[in-house]
TrEMBL record:
<keyword id="KW-0418">Kinase</keyword>
<keyword id="KW-0813">Transport</keyword>
<feature type="modified residue" description="Phosphohistidine; by EIIA">
    <location>
        <position position="14"/>
    </location>
</feature>
<protein>
    <submittedName>
        <fullName>PTS system, mannose-specific IIB component</fullName>
    </submittedName>
</protein>
<dbReference type="InterPro" id="IPR004720">
    <property type="entry name" value="PTS_IIB_sorbose-sp"/>
</dbReference>
<dbReference type="GO" id="GO:0009401">
    <property type="term" value="P:phosphoenolpyruvate-dependent sugar phosphotransferase system"/>
</dbReference>
<dbReference type="GO" id="GO:0016301">
    <property type="term" value="F:kinase activity"/>
</dbReference>
<keyword id="KW-0808">Transferase</keyword>
<dbReference type="InterPro" id="IPR036667">
    <property type="entry name" value="PTS_IIB_sorbose-sp_sf"/>
</dbReference>
<dbReference type="GO" id="GO:0005737">
    <property type="term" value="C:cytoplasm"/>
</dbReference>
<keyword id="KW-0762">Sugar transport</keyword>
<keyword id="KW-0598">Phosphotransferase system</keyword>
<dbReference type="Pfam" id="PF03830">
    <property type="entry name" value="PTSIIB_sorb"/>
</dbReference>
<dbReference type="GO" id="GO:0008982">
    <property type="term" value="F:protein-N(PI)-phosphohistidine-sugar phosphotransferase activity"/>
</dbReference>
<feature type="active site" description="Pros-phosphohistidine intermediate; for EIIB activity">
    <location>
        <position position="14"/>
    </location>
</feature>
<dbReference type="InterPro" id="IPR018455">
    <property type="entry name" value="PTS_IIB_sorbose-sp_subgr"/>
</dbReference>
<feature type="domain" description="PTS EIIB type-4">
    <location>
        <begin position="1"/>
        <end position="159"/>
    </location>
</feature>
Length: 159
């Protein structure tokens, strides 16, 4: 298994992921790890429709994702792992998933969140979780598509 990209993006599979990242990284497997989406047949159908041809999509709960990755279920796959929050990344790391770098693509504005960049809005819990991830040695970058310049996400947060 080769985790080519671990990305926080609350839109999950959309143009940036389906076109730019999958081609750039030669992806043949997308994992959407989200408890809510894993239990919503309509959202699962939409994700399947949005995937690029010749790319397998698995939509799993966080615990199922941890189990399958740790069991090497995705052997010989080039993978994009998509989640919608830094908390889900921390759960995976605490569950034994080896994550060295996280790409922050988009976290839309919701009540209680403050806009940090054009595409990212965070609440205090999100900020604290990003700090925990950084303290674990995980590189955090902000970048929409592969040709964009990498931006050190912790510098945006003042850390």
């Amino acid at each position: 298994m080769n985790l080519k990209l671990v990305r926080i993006d609350d839109r999950f599979i959309h143009g940036q992921v389906a076109v730019a990242w999958t081609k750039f990284l030669d992806i043949n497997q997308i994992i959407v790890a989200n408890d809510e989406v894993a239990n919503d047949e309509f959202q699962k159908t939409l994700m399947e429709m949005a995937k690029p041809p010749n790319v397998q999509v698995d939509i799993l709960s966080i615990s199922e994702t941890i189990e399958k990755i740790n069991a090497d279920f995705f052997k010989n796959k080039n993978i994009i792992l998509l989640v919608d929050s830094p908390g889900d990344i921390l759960k995976m790391v605490n569950g034994g998933v080896d994550i060295k770098k996280v790409n922050i693509g988009g976290m839309r504005h919701k009540e209680g969140r403050k806009q940090i960049t054009r595409t990212v809005a965070l609440n205090n819990e999100d900020k604290e979780t990003f700090k925990k991830l950084a303290n674990l040695g995980i590189e955090l970058e902000l970048r929409a598509i592969p040709t964009d310049s990498k931006i050190n996400f912790m510098k945006l947060l003042g850390g």
